What does this fold into?
Amino acid sequence: MAKQTRPCYIVGNWKMYKTIDQAVAFIDQIAPLVANSSCKIMLAVPYTAIQPLSEKVKGTNIVIGAQNMNDATEGAFTGEIAAIMLKEAGAEFVLLGHSERRIYFKEDNAFINRKVLKALDSDLMPILCVGESFEEHQDKQTDKVVAQQLTECLQGVKKELMVAYEPVWAIGTGLAATPKVAESAMKQAKAVLGDILGDKVGSKVPLLYGGSVSPKNAQEFLESSEIDGLLVGSASLAAESFAQIISLQAK
Ligand code: PGA
It folds into this structure.
């Protein structure tokens, strides 16, 4: 496979799973298993685990990030967290616009746009998540939805970021998209990113696929020349399955 001239990214999203003790035990288990990987290994962990894990992964090839943040610098926003706090705790990146944030917490593109700008301004790498619902998929609206979400979430953005295409119907359902569906969305994303960021910056944006990625199906996504990596939810919770996915990249 002639593909891997660009770096490969494997990102885990732990969602609301793992206490600090469980998170530390996970790193103990996975670090030796992935030590020789050429992938960039990134873990989006619960807020409480960011600081201890950032210390724990020093000297390994794993980096730690957050799953969300607020767009304000600071303020009276009970329960929210600011970019500067994540940075101080050791986060290097942040997931933004995940469909669970959009659906359960009613985050819209304008809010996500402000967060992307704030993250970039704070030297936190945003991983912007976009993707269509099941109905939109059935209606063949994928390209339109991806284009609209990217356009609205990237207003005023000039710097490089990362983008994850995660069809909502594939998240946590066991029904992954096919590489063909993902590739078509990636092509659309690439075109829109070129329009927004200019071809030079746009072409550098790593594009990840997410949605029911498992050790069984990861290889076919990783083989695609359109896909730069994976965003993995439930299969990132066990060190064995996450390490298995990471090891596929080298094959
Ligand atoms: P999943 O989650 O792998 O469990 O489908 C992916 C995600 O939510 O990022």
